[in-house]
Write a structure and sequence with these properties.
The protein is α+β, with helices and mostly antiparallel strands. The protein contains 4 helices and 8 strands. Strand 3 and strand 4 form a beta hairpin. It is globular, with a radius of gyration of 17 Å.
Length: 159
């Protein structure tokens, strides 16, 4: 955490917050901190799940939840927190806005902007046709780094 605090940015980076929220699971829904999870995960990766959540005020967000199996791996937690610190300083129409990093249910979470729409995989499986120009537009939107660097989640809309 000491290395992450040494980031030099022109914009103040919000510090991760801790909550003592317990996991509330039922057959239909469960909570992550102050948010109620809706439906199945939007996505999953090697070290996290992304859920659609709703706040008590009714606002919808996406929450990236570090897998419980990874919560004891200091390097994974450090990368997760670093991802938030780096991406929360970025401002671009094709990059998802990160709101906060917090601990709840015994693991770390990142609350971010929710983008509704189909993924590239879903469009291809549905038989969507892409010409060269449309493919270039979509590929420019997707940004990823090696596993040792933060993952930049980009948003793309079908055009």
């Amino acid at each position: 955490m000491a290395r992450a605090a040494a980031i030099s940015t022109s914009k103040a980076v919000p510090a991760p917050r801790r909550t003592r929220a317990l996991v509330t699971r039922s057959r239909k829904a469960y909570t992550i901190g102050d948010f109620t999870v809706e439906g199945r995960p939007l996505g999953k990766g090697g070290y996290a799940f992304v859920h659609r959540v709703v706040s008590k005020r009714g606002a919808a967000y996406a929450v990236k939840e570090l897998r419980h199996a990874m919560r004891d791996h200091k390097d994974a937690v450090r990368r997760f927190q670093r991802e938030f610190q780096v991406t929360s300083t970025l401002a671009h129409p094709n990059i998802v806005k990160m709101h906060e990093c917090f601990e709840a249910n015994g693991t770390w979470n990142i609350r971010m902007e929710l983008i509704d729409g189909a993924s590239l995989e879903e469009l291809v499986r549905a038989g969507e046709r892409f010409d060269a120009a449309r493919t270039r537009r979509r590929s420019r939107c997707r940004c990823s780094r090696r596993s040792s660097s933060p993952t930049f989640t980009a948003r793309c809309t079908a055009t």
